[in-house]
Amino acid sequence: MEARLTELSIAARVTAVEEEVQAFLRSLDTLKKSTTLAQRNHERKKLYKTEEFIRLDIEDELLKLHEVPPTAPDAPVPSDELSQCKDPLVVGYATRLNALRVLLTLEIQPSSHTILEKVYMFVRAATFALVMFGGFFVVCFLVPLRWIHLILRQFDVPNYYLPMDWIQTTFGLALCVASGIQISTNDRVNLTMETTKNDPTVVMFTHGSNLDGLMIQGTSPTSLKFIGKKALFMLPIVGWGFRWGFGNIPIDRSNRYVPILLDHGMTSHLYGRREASKRSLKVLAKAVLEYGRSVAISPEGSRSKTGQLQDFKKGPFYLQSDVNKSITPAIVHGAFELWPPGRIFTLSGKAHVDYLPQFHVDPHKSRNANRLALRRVYLTALAKPVPGSSIHPSFFPILTKGRHVADLSTAPDTPHVLMHVWSIMCLWVVIPGAVAAICGAISRLSTVLGVSTTSGTAQLVASVMVGLETFMHFTC
């Protein structure tokens, strides 16, 4: 291992990137006077790419050792995980590279703390909550529309034009509207219906903010089924709409390790979790193979705490191999700077989604080798300047077709802000009106069923909710 790392000049490369990072940090005070936040973060991403390519070279060598057949049946198999490697030389390099990761944490958009900004944030947060809970409440009563999909498919209606698919895209855009984000996109042709109709894809998006999935959902030119952690589906009303309304798929992240634990004799409570994982994967395979659905998942798992690309989890690549489809990388720029972990709600600002060409896994390489190769693609794309892009067109008026976003660190354009305020007013009219209409229908149904009191209606609704949540618990 030492000889191979010497051939790759790991020691010299680590020292060189450490010097580059320190030089950048020393120049920050000067750079803040002459550059924008987006430009400084771009420099951080370029340095991060250099550092991470060194890490990937080391991981490639560890993977080669891991995949070599053991010399004896009882010989220990070296780990392919850099974090679990015991080699002192590798551990030393990993420690230095991990320190650089922390130093290259992205700079976030500062809050001005003015009264106007606080009022604007309160209005946006209240609207976001209205769309999230009120919108999902409405979606729950639109679930029967999914039955129409069976009929429409007989007439070759594409997925994106099915009722609940259109509603899902609208819902994602509405949440982006409520957040006050001015979204731009690039190369959406890589995910058009023409591209994915006969060959569904697995969209893997970067995850540094709560906005990422919403931006992908709202800007994707084809309808996507999202794979989310099980806890999201266990939220009453929200989980019902997310699963039964939009047809998204719950996955228990810990289930990937269940078969390994079972092999070691730990059978007391894990068998059921393994079976639940198998059921989830069967639902996923059916959505992709039978209905031609493209699915979306974050290969990083949880949100990045630094804004930089994290290590890729192995789970999404097991899912990809199960369905045997190509991967479409989606890069989200600017969302972390607006809504990093720890900030209560997002600032209003600009963000960008870049859809990269499809990545076809190499069948001659292992799953982990393809995982490392794909991570190089992401790092290379992130280190490039945000490409010229037009603001994503939609029926929401805050997004103006044909305009260009010059710098993600600048405030939203004035027309965007004015149209955003108008859109918020529309949301406060439409959603409460729809909720009131549904509540009125529930009240009339209660009267028909002989439940005439308010408390009786509340008990009926509570009973239905408990029943639905119980059903979700045992089937999720």
Automatic annotation (TrEMBL):
GO molecular function: 1-acylglycerol-3-phosphate O-acyltransferase activity
CDD domains: LPLAT_AGPAT-like
Keywords recorded for this protein, A-Z: Acyltransferase, Lipid biosynthesis, Lipid metabolism, Membrane, Transferase, Transmembrane, Transmembrane helix
Pathway(s) the chain acts in: Lipid metabolism
S-adenosyl-L-methionine listed as a keyword: no
GO process annotations (BP): phosphatidic acid biosynthetic process
Cross-referenced InterPro entries: Plipid/glycerol_acylTrfase
Phospholipid/glycerol acyltransferase domain sequence ranges: 201-335
A Pfam family recorded for this sequence: Acyltransferase
Chain segments annotated as transmembrane: 122-146, 166-183, 377-399, 419-442
UniProt-recorded name of the protein: Phospholipid/glycerol acyltransferase domain-containing protein
The species this protein was found in: Aphanomyces astaci (Crayfish plague agent)
Organism placement in taxonomy: Eukaryota, Sar, Stramenopiles, Oomycota, Saprolegniomycetes
